[in-house]
Write a structure and sequence with these properties.
By secondary structure, this protein is mainly alpha-helical. It has 2 domains: 82 residues; 149 residues, Up-down Bundle (Four Helix Bundle (Hemerythrin (Met), subunit A)), CATH 1.20.120. Helix content is 69%, strand content 7%. It is built from 7 helices and 3 strands; from the N terminus they run H-H-H-H-H-H-E-H-E-E. The chain is elongated. The termini are far apart.
Amino acid sequence: MTSCGNASTDVSPSFSVGIKFEIELSKSEISSTHQITESSFTFAQTFIMRLFLAATFLLSLGITSCSNDGAKTESTTTTAEQAAPAAPQSKLSDSATAQLMNVVTDYYQLKDAFVATDAAKADEAAKKLAQSTEKMKTAVKGDSSVGANVLPYLDTVSMSSEKLLAEQDPTIEKKRAHFEKVSDAMYVLLKNVELKNAGVYRQFCPMAFDDKGAYWLSNENEIRNPYFGKKMLECGEVTDSLK
């Protein structure tokens, strides 16, 4: 009995070592598992933080881009407003000033026809100028403060345009004498009504009409001589401007 009792209660050395080894292995596995779990959590935290930072950066870029686009649009609008030319003004009413600019435009067409030495175009432009001048006379008659002063010059422009049209001169040279009278009357007319913001230049050729000299009006600073055309296209100088 005693032998049997000793056999059942005694633990062999190999069995004790096995149990100890299994216990140590279990502790190692638990520690390893804990480290892996902690490492995974740290990685997840880092990944989420990086995503947040990246999203914040992209959002800031979008806001900056929108702000820049808005600033560019505002700047472009401001520049466009500053660059817009002022409308022509004069002592006349707005409607009469608009009609006056029609007269000026028709005059420029007449001038260009003489620059090109084109008699047919000169006749066509002279007809239009006479018609627009008559409309202008009607427009200023209701303006008692200025109308009476400018009517004589409008009469000269109208009558000289009609004489130019009636002049039978295929060489255009005789028509140029009537053009000089139109040009002189136009200049005094525009000075009397104090036309501004129209970019009108008064120019002079000292050699026109056997060196007597003659004036004309232009919408550009560059000389384009209507008294000689291609013969002496750039002969002349600017003597005044109505800005």
